[in-house]
C-alpha cells in the first residue's frame, strides 16, 4: 500500500489545522478540497499544495479519494456524510456527527451496509496526553475510578468571535459546542452512560457582538448558556459537569477522576497534550498531622499532533483490520447523551440513555503519526 487519499469537504477556519497536520503524516495524502465557494477551495489548495479543488461532487467523484473529511457546518454533517457513504468512501466527520439521533443512526446503518467506516471528532482522546492518562488509570494509579468532575466556564465566544450567533443557536451552546470534548473523555474512561439529569439557564436573552464588522449589534440566545449535568454510567461511576458561556472567571480544561486510591487530573480534553498528575489519600490523620498533599506528575512523551489524528488512526485501523478509536458509534452515543441532557434540562426529569457503546480501544503504544507504515 501507499499513502491513502483524503478529500476534504468544507474549507472554513478549522480546515487549516487539519491540512497542517494531515500534510505531515506520511500515511495519508490530501488530494482534493471541496467547498460551496469553489474560489475559497482553490485558494486553500494553493496555500497547502493540494493538487485539486472543486465542489463536494468533485471530491466524491475523485477516484483516488478513499476517506472524506467532512468539515461542513453541523447542520450539513449528515447530508454530506451520507453522500460520501453512497459514493463508497469512508468518512471522518467533525463534531457532532449530526444534530438528531435518527439521522445519525441511519448514517451508521448505511455505512455498515456499504462496508465503509465512520469516524467522529473529537480526536483529542488520541493525543499522547489523554492516552498516557488513561493508561495510568488502567494501571491502577488511583485504584478503582469512582466519579469525575469536569469544568468548562468562560465569558462566552461573543467576547472574541466576529459572528458568534451560531454558537448560541439550536445545535450549539456550551453543551453541544464544548460538551463533546468532555463527554467523549468521560465515556472513554467510564464506559457507556446509563442516565443523565441536567439543569440549564440563560444569563440573558440577547447578547452583543463585541468585535469585527458587526460589533455593537445583538443576536438572540436560543439555548441555555449554562448547563450543569449529572451523569450516571452503566459501570456505576458518576460525573458532575459544568459547561458555561456566562462566567466572569475563565476556567476550563478541568477533568478530575477520583478513585479508591487517589485522584488524577487529565489534560484539557480540547487539547492533545498537557499535564497529568495524581495525588494519593492522606491516610489516617492524627493530632498535628499534615493535611498537605503532594501532586505526583506522570511523565509522558508529548508528540506534536493535532486534529486529523483520528483520520490517520482510521487509515491504519483499516489496514490492520482493527477497530479505530474515535468511532461513529462513540460519536453517536455521546450525541445521544448530550441531547438527553438538553431534554432533561427542559423537562426537569432524569432521562435514560437508549444507546450504548462498546469499550473504547486504546491507541497502540507504538503508534507514531510521523512514521510511514503502509
UniProtKB/TrEMBL annotation:
Gfo/Idh/MocA-like oxidoreductase N-terminal domain span: 5-118
Origin superkingdom: Bacteria
Protein name: Gfo/Idh/MocA family oxidoreductase
InterPro entries with a match to the protein in the record: Gfo/Idh/MocA-like_OxRdtase_N, Gfo/Idh/MocA_oxidrdct_glycsds, GFO_IDH_MocA-like_dom, NAD(P)-bd_dom_sf
Keyword Transport on entry: no
Residues annotated as domain GFO/IDH/MocA-like oxidoreductase: 130-264
Organism: Microbacterium marmarense
Keywords assigned: NAD, Oxidoreductase
Coiled coil: none
Amino acid at each position: 500500500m501507499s499513502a491513502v487519499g483524503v478529500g476534504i469537504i468544507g474549507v472554513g477556519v478549522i480546515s487549516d489545522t487539519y491540512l497542517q497536520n494531515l500534510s505531515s503524516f506520511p500515511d495519508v495524502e490530501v488530494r482534493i478540497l471541496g467547498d460551496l465557494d469553489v474560489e475559497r477551495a482553490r485558494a486553500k489548495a494553493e496555500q497547502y499544495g493540494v493538487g485539486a479543488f472543486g465542489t463536494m461532487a468533485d471530491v466524491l467523484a475523485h477516484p483516488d479519494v478513499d476517506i472524506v473529511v467532512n468539515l461542513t457546518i453541523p447542520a450539513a454533517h449528515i447530508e454530506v456524510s451520507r453522500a460520501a457513504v453512497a459514493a463508497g468512501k469512508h468518512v471522518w466527520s467533525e463534531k457532532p456527527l449530526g444534530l438528531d439521533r435518527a439521522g445519525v443512526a441511519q448514517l451508521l446503518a448505511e455505512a455498515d451496509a456499504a462496508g465503509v467506516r465512520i469516524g467522529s471528532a473529537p480526536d483529542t482522546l488520541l493525543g499522547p496526553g489523554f492516552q498516557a492518562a488513561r493508561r495510568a488509570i488502567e494501571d491502577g494509579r488511583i485504584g478503582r475510578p469512582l466519579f469525575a468532575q469536569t469544568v468548562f466556564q468562560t465569558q462566552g465566544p461573543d467576547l472574541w468571535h466576529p459572528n458568534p450567533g451560531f454558537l448560541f443557536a439550536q445545535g450549539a451552546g456550551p453543551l453541544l459546542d464544548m460538551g463533546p470534548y468532555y463527554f467523549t473523555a468521560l465515556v472513554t474512561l467510564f464506559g457507556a452512560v446509563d442516565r443523565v439529569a441536567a439543569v440549564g439557564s440563560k444569563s440573558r436573552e440577547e447578547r452583543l457582538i463585541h468585535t469585527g464588522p458587526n460589533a455593537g449589534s445583538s443576536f438572540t440566545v436560543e439555548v441555555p448558556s449554562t448547563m450543569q449535568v449529572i451523569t450516571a454510567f452503566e459501570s456505576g461511576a458518576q460525573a458532575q459537569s459544568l459547561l458555561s458561556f456566562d462566567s466572569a472567571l475563565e476556567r476550563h480544561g478541568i477533568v478530575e477522576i477520583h478513585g479508591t486510591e487517589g485522584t488524577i487530573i487529565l489534560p484539557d480534553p480540547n487539547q492533545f497534550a498537557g499535564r497529568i498528575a495524581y495525588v494519593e489519600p492522606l491516610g489516617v490523620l492524627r493530632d498535628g498531622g499534615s493535611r498537605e498533599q503532594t501532586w505526583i506528575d506522570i511523565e509522558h512523551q508529548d508528540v506534536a499532533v493535532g486534529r486529523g489524528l483520528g483520520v490517520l488512526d482510521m487509515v491504519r485501523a483499516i489496514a490492520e483490520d482493527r477497530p479505530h478509536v474515535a468511532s461513529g458509534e462513540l460519536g453517536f452515543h455521546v450525541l445521544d447523551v448530550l441531547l438527553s441532557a438538553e431534554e432533561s434540562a427542559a423537562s426537569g426529569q432524569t432521562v435514560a440513555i437508549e444507546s450504548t457503546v462498546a469499550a473504547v480501544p486504546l491507541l497502540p503504544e507504538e503508534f507514531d503519526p510521523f512514521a510511514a507504515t503502509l
